[in-house]
Design goal:
By secondary structure, the protein is mainly α. The chain is about 65% helix and about 0% strand. It has 13 helices and two strands; from the N terminus they run ααααααααββααααα. Strands 1-2 form a two-stranded antiparallel ribbon. β1 and β2 form a beta hairpin.
Length: about 300
């Protein structure tokens, strides 16, 4: 049996070195499955690294969790899946904290949660509750973005007229500016190196986006349920769309029929003595057949 301390240290280093490549995630996942007798300790390593590293590493670990649960499920070892289900709230709080520092990771968390939901690793109720919390944090992070606080129309006490003046009492604390000119409660900014790393990793993930796009969740009616959830309710827009498509189909059918085209062209050119080529050929064939029948009658006589 391997030394527990050595296993923790090696797995911790693998988590710190995670990036957008599949190889790094597979290497860490295979190592954790190889040492599954220490599953609880390795799971605690994941939680520890989510709280100690920068936001880019936390996003990489979040993506790794999805890949790791896939590997564990295929191996038939669902203990890691149960532990993630148990601590999913703690994972989300670490990847996208409520202080605004993880605003860039909110989309990452949503994407991974939807992937785990589609693969039946999480239930819909838990995901919907986490989604409500993420929506509140996303709105709170947007409150920190404006460079100037919003202005509210107030009434001048002297003139009694409404003017677009600033009422400081109506400014929420999240948007109040301190006296020294610096923003309060602003999350720390990423340095240039971390921003470039994040852009490169997002580009790499975008290339592999379609690898699992056709994945269907397990279950007898799983695909039907997914299509039912993704389909919007029937409304007036659908009636309008069907009517427009029906008109387009009729126009296309009229244009595709050569006799309809010949009829329109013949009516437009009737005064000039022109007609459809196909119909003209039919007339010539009728005349030739008529002439040949007349000659046959003369020969009989």
């Amino acid at each position: 049996m391997a030394d527990p301390f050595e296993v923790r240290m090696r797995f911790t280093n693998m988590l710190r070195q995670l990036n957008a490549s599949v190889n790094s995630a597979q290497k860490a996942g295979q190592y954790a499955l190889k040492n599954r007798e220490m599953a609880e300790d390795l799971h605690s390593c994941i939680l520890e690294q989510l709280g100690r590293n920068n936001m880019n590493t936390r996003a990489n670990i979040m993506y790794f969790i999805e890949h790791f649960l896939d590997m564990a499920h295929k191996e038939g070892y669902d203990e890691y899946v149960r532990m993630i289900q148990r601590d999913i709230i703690r994972v989300v709080d670490s990847v996208a904290p409520d202080d605004g520092s993880g605003a860039a990771n909110v989309k990452v968390v949503r994407k991974v949660l939807q992937a785990l939901l589609s693969k039946s690793f999480l239930d819909r109720e838990s995901v919907s509750q986490i989604e409500d919390v993420l929506r509140e944090r996303d709105a709170a992070s947007q409150d920190l973005n404006p460079l100037t606080p919003p202005t509210a129309p107030t009434t001048d006490s002297k003139t009694g007229t409404g003017e677009d003046t600033l009422d400081l009492s109506r400014i929420p604390p999240s948007q109040a500016l301190p006296g020294n000119g610096k923003r309060a409660n602003m999350p720390p900014k990423l340095d240039r190196k971390q921003v470039e790393q994040r852009i490169e990793e997002d580009r790499e993930r975008h290339k592999r986006l379609r690898e699992g796009i056709w994945a269907v969740p397990t279950g007898e009616y799983a695909e039907l349920d997914r299509l039912w959830e993704e389909t919007s309710d029937y409304g007036e827009d659908d009636d309008r769309t069907l009517a427009e498509e029906w008109e387009d189909w009729k126009k296309a059918a009229d244009l595709a029929c050569p006799h309809q085209n010949a009829r329109g062209a013949g009516e437009g050119e009737r005064g000039k003595g022109t007609s459809n080529g196909k119909h003209e050929t039919e007339k010539k064939s009728d005349r030739s057949s008529g002439g040949s029948s007349e000659r046959k009658r003369d020969d009989r006589r």
